[in-house]
């Protein structure tokens, strides 16, 4: 069988295996000292004042909304090109997601579309850092400040990333990160919430663990009182030390893994530059650097994206599609009024987008294999 390159694969080494094993042997596998230490390391890495490790990015988005007091009667502006969790968590908070279109080249939330969607009920904007490239957070911050709105970053794709002198969580009220298996850093499942305000972060922490005023580690430590109070109807979103131990090792390699992703992106950009009609993702600039979580190409007119993906699969290349816009899904079409709007950029992009393999464990031969297969399949598809 010839070479197979999957769409994504985590980079798990001896350090991760040893770190998780040490927690398993320690006698405490729940949320405890390792999670606290990992939180401190993320706070230092991101320069974030308040951080909370959680068991998913979805949990981080949900808690951001709850802790910022967003609920029934509120509208939250969300790009339609995103994963369903970005808008579903708004619904779980009891608020209404208002879908808006994205910018043509980068597929990031369109700031002018956000401005047009504002109503007296708007309470927040969730900016998605699509594919790992940060949305225009400085423009969004100004807009939110002018209208008294909260700015939340869905940074599931962007760790690390930088734009205009800031990083995810730098100027927003809250930022939510994901450590799902395919993400730039992974703990299999996991999430991180950073918040600007200490009181909101404290609310999020209580809500993340049943609304109980003391965490399990404090209650179950030898000699400590087992009694506690319940101060809110909480959730169960905390990250256990087994996952934090894995994540702490991943954080140690965050910059090296991003550098490898950037090398892969640079190689693809060079190898695919002259393919007619193919739109490549934007390049890094000194003020806009991606995590390179995804390498999303947009196919030229007249090509059948799913047929191209199937043909690449036959060449041993895994691909994915990011994203079918939310307004096209049956739930949003029937239950979310804004899904009836016009989203010309998202609709057009959805017919063209294809995500190529990009993960730090790829070898140079893997990169070459993917680039050669993409050239061959696209040249055949356009009949050259
Ligand atoms: C843009 C975006 N937001 C939120 C999430 C949810 O993260 P998680 O799977 O960790 O809950 C994901 C991904 O999986 C995502 O791609």
Automatic annotation (TrEMBL):
<dbReference type="GO" id="GO:0000271">
    <property type="term" value="P:polysaccharide biosynthetic process"/>
</dbReference>
<dbReference type="InterPro" id="IPR015421">
    <property type="entry name" value="PyrdxlP-dep_Trfase_major"/>
</dbReference>
<comment type="similarity">
    <text>Belongs to the DegT/DnrJ/EryC1 family.</text>
</comment>
<feature type="modified residue" description="N6-(pyridoxal phosphate)lysine">
    <location>
        <position position="183"/>
    </location>
</feature>
<feature type="active site" description="Proton acceptor">
    <location>
        <position position="183"/>
    </location>
</feature>
<dbReference type="InterPro" id="IPR015422">
    <property type="entry name" value="PyrdxlP-dep_Trfase_small"/>
</dbReference>
<dbReference type="Pfam" id="PF01041">
    <property type="entry name" value="DegT_DnrJ_EryC1"/>
</dbReference>
<dbReference type="InterPro" id="IPR000653">
    <property type="entry name" value="DegT/StrS_aminotransferase"/>
</dbReference>
<dbReference type="InterPro" id="IPR015424">
    <property type="entry name" value="PyrdxlP-dep_Trfase"/>
</dbReference>
<keyword id="KW-0663">Pyridoxal phosphate</keyword>
<dbReference type="GO" id="GO:0030170">
    <property type="term" value="F:pyridoxal phosphate binding"/>
</dbReference>
<protein>
    <submittedName>
        <fullName>dTDP-4-amino-4,6-dideoxygalactose transaminase</fullName>
    </submittedName>
</protein>
<dbReference type="GO" id="GO:0008483">
    <property type="term" value="F:transaminase activity"/>
</dbReference>
